[in-house]
Amino acid sequence: MESFDVIVIGGGPGGLACAKKLALAGRRVLLLERRKLIGPKVCAGGITWDGLVQRVPEHLVERAFRRQLIFSRRQQVCVYEKNPIIATVNRRTLGQWMMADAAGAGGRIRTGMPVREVADGTVTAVDEQGRPQRFRFRHLVGADGSTSVVRRFLGLGSNKFGTGINYQVPGQYETMEWHLDYRIFGYGYAWIFPHRDTVSIGAYGTRENMAPARLRTHLIRWAEARGFHLEREHGRAALINFDYQGFQFGRTWLVGDAAGLASGLTGEGIYPAIVSGEAVARKIIDPDYAADEIRRLAQKQHRHERILRLAGRNGVLCSLLMEALVLMLRMKLLDFHALEMAD
User: Fold this and answer.
1) pLDDT digit string (tens) for 144-167?
2) Domain-located, residue 343
3) How many domains does the chain fold into?
């Protein structure tokens, strides 16, 4: 049985960022990813300038936008900044680049290896031939998303989920847009994100507020009125976990969606995943490291949850809150980065 200093389960941005930093510090790292191909994910593909844009090579950026158009039922605002506010990337390309980066740092990466069992000090995965493979670890990092195997091993339940639905359709579109309308999306929202040769059209909402099937139906009808015929396209949906209950459990760690660090209000997940993945790596390398980044992520998430609870009291209040948010953006009383919606 092979032994590793750290085993990372999950090859998303959080797991890859964690594995790279650990490998650069000389730790023996194994990353296990259940899918054969790292990268593809249900995602709008938007990354923020303050978050990930400046960390990726220029050739990965498909489109960059200095303007953001935000619409509510009664008003709209155009937010403009000197630097690009949000850029779009292809998640498959981004994942492949991050995988090469982590492997180049010395991390060992095995794909097509779903984990079947986690026990104290060992992980059992199954290879492509269906053969069980066991590995021993000193530290275990769960970066395996909203339905995390590691989270279940720790006995942590999850009761706070959002749903993201995305359609990637061929075509060109010139503006990046956000649409808030309680009648259609509850206290969620819809987006239109232009990529190089495609357009991401999707919606996000909490499961408590709107069932995924209803959200999908409303999205298709809404898009039809804007000339996008989504019923002809293949849409994909994913759960987003925002039930944060901690990130360190002895020598077992959780990052990103596995930790429940996504925003329940906006569905934002890539940036929290990378920040928490790197912070956990630093904490493993240096146990005295404070990991204040994760504390700040959790504080922001709690602020977003308070808005959700307030909006959830009734539809009229939710609609008023949305109009107030857009008005504050128009009057420059609110920074767009305080919201940082979907990724």
Assistant:
1) 999 999 999 999 989 999 999 999
2) no
3) 1
